[in-house]
């Protein structure tokens, strides 16, 4: 596994996986490194078509600023295609940026990462690479996955079918720390870039790419295993802060304290810091739960059950907290949602993304549907077809029977997608805010209250609503983590 090229010879990059990470990451690399040709390949034809769409509102990933970057680089030195083998054969460097979900069956089911897509990529690289190729783990992977990739690549090197021109490989770990909704900012101005590897020339080649726009002091070099583990650890620490603040939020509600005041008081301690202390409906997103469960699995595998239990508690608290919110809504609405309509504002796992993976809205919506609610769901960016998949329930055509008039609430455990906020709130008994979209903080509650059925509630699980305006409109109000007397208890 030797013979790395000098940085200047990196002319062609291939990225396998045109998803939330592969697309934006490669778009920024192409934008900042015009001398490098970047090919992003995927087996999903419709995703590639969407990346190639001339209508930039149809890109498969919604990220502020992404359209501008794509517009500058696409067809210049950024290309999206399904020609995986060709792109690998032309590349000096191959990024693996495919999905690594939690295994659903077999050994480690429910916790360990399913590496079948990563393994498939390694085999494709082994089969089609030419010359010396640097393979970069961009996906989030369990510690020691680089070893698996290396073993597959080395098997290809020693294969009898290969001649003296057999490719040579070097494997690096380069985990991605971007957060959805701020991906372009995070990529253009990262807190750090982490490169783990054994071969300094290969590390320098990858560092050279980032040096086009990232200051040298922000490019951290470690061994491969530290790099892989650092990614899981970063997510575990971030998620732990959210479970911590949500646990304190529940205590605030019980005691009359306000979690926002507590967060401000502790966040000013420079050892604690103020970020990631917003109480909410629980963390969602494709990464936190999956990566912590992976850490839990690894800890048990390496004979550290106490470590595993510690981190598993972060996920357990999050799940408990999501169900706590659903139970609370039911309780406030007199213990039953049968025949009641709840306007659910926000379905994405956070604002500024169309991603719903592991969104708290999914568990909460399922609970409310089980209680017989009619859910009127609004989200400015999420496709209703995705909601149907997430809830495993098709959208109803209408809540009402024309025969009985528009105020008649027929049907239980059903949902409809609302075209706007006012539509979502029509005839609703409660509004439940689950995503912190800016427009939800601007709602005219006097106007909305006229459309609702009294006594009507506003449940603000994101702390973005001005409580005075809600009270002035004659509505009852609950806010996550707020036990103060002004809140309707
Ligand atoms: N989403 C995030 O914000 C984020 C941030 C940092 C790291 N990560 C990690 O990055 C990795 C990718 O995440 P994502 O959110 O981009 O996933 P994603 O599901 O959006 O995209 C993965 C893509 O890989 C493609 N793919 C799978 N196998 C393939 C193969 N053999 N050949 C070609 N294409 C193939 C899939 O079709 C899919 O389009 C994961 O390991 C994730 O944990 C994600
Ligand atoms: O104070 C906070 C901060 C976040 N959240 C929630 O936590 C979840 C995750 O948010 P965030 O971390 O901002 O988004 P992700 O896109 O999931 O990014 C995380 O996961 C990525 C994938 O591994 C990493 O690359 C990022 O560094 C890491 O922040 C979302 O549901 C947020 O609403 C809160 O409830 N309170």
From TrEMBL:
Keywords: NAD, Oxidoreductase. One of its GO terms (biological process) is UDP-glucuronate biosynthetic process. Pfam families: UDPG_MGDP_dh, UDPG_MGDP_dh_C, UDPG_MGDP_dh_N. The keyword NAD applies. Its EC number is 1.1.1.22. It comes from the Bacteria. The active site is at 287 (nucleophile). Pathway: Nucleotide-sugar biosynthesis; UDP-alpha-D-glucuronate biosynthesis; UDP-alpha-D-glucuronate from UDP-alpha-D-glucose: step 1/1. NAD(+) binds at residues 17-22, 42, 47, 98-102, 139-140, 180, 287-290, 357. InterPro entries: 6-PGluconate_DH-like_C_sf, NAD(P)-bd_dom_sf, UDP-Glc/GDP-Man, UDP-Glc/GDP-Man_DH_C, UDP-Glc/GDP-Man_DH_C_sf, UDP-Glc/GDP-Man_DH_dimer, UDP-Glc/GDP-Man_DH_N, UDPglc_DH_euk. This is UDP-glucose 6-dehydrogenase. It comes from Prochlorococcus marinus (strain MIT 9211).
